[in-house]
Amino acid sequence: xxxxxxxxxxxxxxxxxxIAVHRADAAQDASFSKYxxxxxxLYLEAKDFSSLLSDWNSxxxxxxxxxxxxxxxxxRSRLFLRLKGAGDQFAAAAxxxxxxxxxxxxxxxxxxxxxxxxxxxxxxxITYLPSAKSLQTQLWQVRSKFEPRNAGGVTFYVRRxxxxxxxxxxxxxxxxxLLATRADLLAGALQLISGNKDRAIETxxxxxxxxxxxxxxxxxxxxxxLEKIVPSPYFRTYWAQQNITDMxxxxxxxxxLLRSSKEYREERxxxxxxAPAAESDAGRNAVADLIRFVPENSGVYQAxxxxxxxxxxxxxxxxxxxxxxxxxxxxxxxxxxxxxSGETGQSSDxxxxxxxxxxxxxxxxxxxxxxxxxxxxxQVLASLQVQATDRDPAGVFVRIHSAVALVAASDWSDADxxxxxxDFVSPSFTxxxxxxxxxxxxxxxxxxxxxxxxxxxxxxxxxVADDPALLEKMIAGLDRKSAAEPARLIAGFDHARERTNxxxxxxxxxxxxxxxxxxSGTREPQFFSENMASLSQVFANISSxxxxxxxxxxxxxxxxxxxxxx
Length: 566
What we know:
The protein is an alpha+beta fold. It has helices at residues 6-15, 49-57, 60-66, 69-74, 78-94, 100-105, 131-134, 138-141, 183-193, 205-213, 226-229, 233-238, 244-247, 281-290, 309-321, 365-376, 414-429, 468-475, 495-509, 527-538, and strands at residues 42-46, 111-117, 122-128, 147-151, 154-160, 167-173, 176-180, 220-225, 250-259, 263-272, 300-305, 380-391, 398-408, 438-440, 445-447, 454-458, 461-465, 489-494, 542-552, 555-564.
């Protein structure tokens, strides 16, 4: 298997920061969690870390990524420099560099790593590695530079860098190897291995509760103590999703990655701090029902159970009715002044009004309330949003089409819906009522102006789209049966279909006066068309991604499936 995952990449980056040795009387395939002292914020365990590392090193994804714009930007990021600094400190303490050769030497089969301090990268690593291989590692060869100590009847070695005060400790015993960046962590692990009843990670409630809720152990398992991770300033700074508020509602999580030749599947369990409000079976069944409206050639879709009236209004507004409206985001840059020959202005500038605030593009309160009141008094069981891109006939421009479907507990009022939608959009499109009259099409209604807003009401189903062709494909779903299972959320992304259009679209949108000269290294890569597009190219063999979310009491269960094209 020649592929690697983003999760695997993170593991490689962390583990190349340091390693250690251990002895255990457990079988090779047993979990190592009982040998880790209590207190970590993250625990990683692999069935065969050596195989995972080999797959990554031999994968085309690694080769492409290292030459990509995404890696170029990452290699100059603050996070990368901090990791490099931690690697340099490890090298000074251990007397050898923590490079990929070193990682390959100490990578055994069953392996586990616990992270105790995210800021200082303090961790403990244990792996099953035959003693003959352990004695051939660079770490063992330089043991004379270390101070010998003893814990649990096993000799281990410690070395401290006098400048940074960073420690590296390791031990080899039998067919197990341990490595740590704190001597007390390594000593604690050896005490647990010898049978000492010191407190282990398995005795901590957050760990025991999370692992007991997990399903099949994957090729790679990650257990997170979110009570410790989320408040950390490092997490708040470097967490890419920046959804800190959402993460605060969970106390712990576990994720298992299971690999096969054509599919990677991630099984997640998130433990909520407080039991969420009860959900009706009708909402979950409605989500499964709406999936039949998703066209085969859709790029992105998401169905959610029991959305609020405000959420439905926001969905319609941002995806279809007024996607370009809203206040301009506040700039984080100081304004620039460009002076040529000393001019400070022109005579035409006297016509510029400075006594009136700029228009914010918002709609009137009357039009907003008309649609909002209609949605708020209707019991919506589930919502679906669908988006897809296509090229114009000349193949130059990429157009983005969106559609929204809402299923209610009772039938919609066709006349009231069309009146509310027309009132909502009219202030932005007409001053005399032109172009906002509805005309009958085959199976739906469409505005008679230049903007192709289309609506179809079929009993309890409401479908709205900004593209008639997309709406017709969704209407065809009425004759299909849904194969989806009830869930609180179902989503999907067709990477194979959308990646080329993504790059084409942002190659035009990102273009500016400074777009030339990238090959000579005179500028930063454009964020979307070069940075993100290159990351998409790295994982070009991932054809699609699907997400299924369910709930079981205080546990949120998520299944994320990545389909590989080859």
